[in-house]
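FORM 7B: Structural annotation worksheet

SECTION A. Query
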Amino acid sequence: MLQADQASAKGIETIVLNEDTTKTTDSWKRVRTTAAMVYLAGDGPVRNLSQTMERLAFPQTSDS
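SECTION B. Predicted structure
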């Protein structure tokens, strides 16, 4: 993703997540601990994708 590459080149810790990332625990650890910018990418409805990703990234604070 071009935007993520540009941010990383400027020293911003960036991660791109998509529907395939749900099985990659290292990515979620980076979201919680070091990422300053998170890009959500996917073909599905953004609302559903973002709710799922929020639950995975922050399981202890999720209401779902």
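SECTION C. Observations
The longest helix spans residues 46-57. The helical segments are 2-9, 25-33, 46-57.

SECTION D. Sign-off
Analyst initials: ____
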